[in-house]
Amino acid sequence: MKILHAPLDLASVGWSLTQGFRALGQEADFATIATSRLSNAGNIDLSYPCDNSLVRQYKKYKFCARSLPNYDVVHYHAGRSIFDYGNGSLSLLDLKAASKRDQVVAMTYHGCEVRGLRPELCHQYCTERVCEDINQHKRVQEIKAYVDLFYVTTPDLLSAVPYAKLLPQSVWGMEEVNPIYPFIDSGKLIRIMHAPSKRSSKGSSTIINECEQLIAEGYPIEFILIENLSHDEALQQLATADIVIDNIITGWYGVLAVEAASRGKVVVTSIEESFVQRSGLPAPPFIGATPETFKEVLEATIENQGIYRELGCTNRRFALERHSATTHAGQLLRDYAEVKNRKTYA
Predict the structure, then answer these.
(1) Is 5 helix (H, G, I), strand (E, B) or coil?
(2) Residue 259's CB: how many other CB atoms inside 10 A?
(3) Burial letters for 61-86: b for 16+ Cβ neighbours within 10 Å, e otherwise?
(4) Which of 100, 157, 163, 255 is 20 to 30 A from 235, alpha carbon to alpha carbon?
């Protein structure tokens, strides 16, 4: 089966799945229309420094016209397609064309591109307010008419897209990571790290302020804020942490928590019990916190150093079992094959 994932690599999920397909012997590509320091470059690069450049538009058009029809599956991410210009007649052009060619068409939603469908999912502490985009309803309904398979990466989004399947964030290469479990002694500061992609969507102001307050109060901690680094550079920093704080406002954890867990770290993040129930999966073994409870939770975690090693081992097992890119690629292959067979014999 020949598979394409596109057009944005949010938290490296699409790229990781591509590697998982290849590990299973499938022909898989990732085409990206934009790159950043936090994402992996796709093996098909359709980006260009100037967003409105005619060169960039031609690159995308040429790929969609000549190469895209050759795939059995086209799997899009974040409510976007490659040749896509807002709402109306120029939206989702390549996605619509793929649907008419009877290719298997899939879509994964990652977060704020659908949270506006259910305003209660938008946390009061977030200042981005991307979820208030009034065009979300129209666009999601338009996509629904052309797509065969829908996925979300976090369980809160199931209420916004109830016809989707939950496919947790995929992370590639965790099995090869050598975990460095926290080792605490009386003469060592506890290293606490936080690496927000966007401070406003992680509760970072509270995290930073409370950690600085704990240092002022004499707690034996060192707080490190990781920003403006490439993904690889951030992971190198992460390897030296004892405790990693993901976010404290969204109700669920992100890829940072998974990468930290795979390295045997203690993870503090936001876990909403109703989202656990909605997922239908066992609760993650992370330490839960909200803006209101964060300082108290972190104080207790700092003082309970005896659990670090055991919790680090538990976290690593959890990451490998629930977030393996190869396992998820296998699940997707079964879904793709079911749709492909249905279309073939319809």
Answers:
(1) strand
(2) 28
(3) eebbeeebeebbbbbbbbbbbbbbee
(4) 157
Q: What is the DSSP string of 191-205?
A: EEEE--SSGGGTTHH
Residue whose token pair is 């928590």: 257
Instruction: Give the containing element (helix H, strand E) for 217.
Output: none
- Judge residue 42's burial from the number of C-beta atoms within 10 Å of its C-beta, 0-12 exposed, 13-18 middle, 19 or more buried: buried
Per-residue pLDDT tens over the stretch 272-309: 999 999 999 999 999 999 999 999 999 999 999 999 99
Cα–Cα dist 100/303, whole Å? 60
Helices (H), 101-221: 112-115, 136-144, 204-216
Cα torsion at 225, 228, 232, 233 (round to 10°)?
-60
Q: Give the model confidence (pLDDT) of 58-96 as tens digits.
A: 889 999 999 999 999 999 999 999 998 877 778 899 999
What burial class does residue 24 get, using C-beta atoms within 10 Å of its C-beta: 0-12 exposed, 13-18 middle, 19+ buried? middle
- Closest among 15, 119, 17 to 328, alpha carbons compared: 17
Taking the C-alpha atoms of residue 101 and residue 111, their distance in angstroms, rounded to an integer, is 29
Largest CA distance in the chain: 69
Contact 72, 103 (CB under 8 A): yes
**Gyration radius of the chain's alpha carbons:** 21
User: What does the CA dihedral 228, 229, 235, 237 come to, rounded to 10 degrees?
Assistant: -80
Write out the two tokens for 134.
Answer: 């009034």
Cα distances from 191 to residues 141, 188, 238, in angstroms, run 46, 9, 10
Asked, as a colleague might, if the bond just before 282 is cis with ω within 30 of 0, I would say: no
Tokens (6 digits) for 40 = 């992996």
CA 66 – CA 75 distance, rounded (Å): 17
Q: pTM of this prediction?
A: 0.92
Q: In what order do the strands lie in the sheet with 266-269?
A: 221-225, 190-194, 243-245, 266-269, 287-288
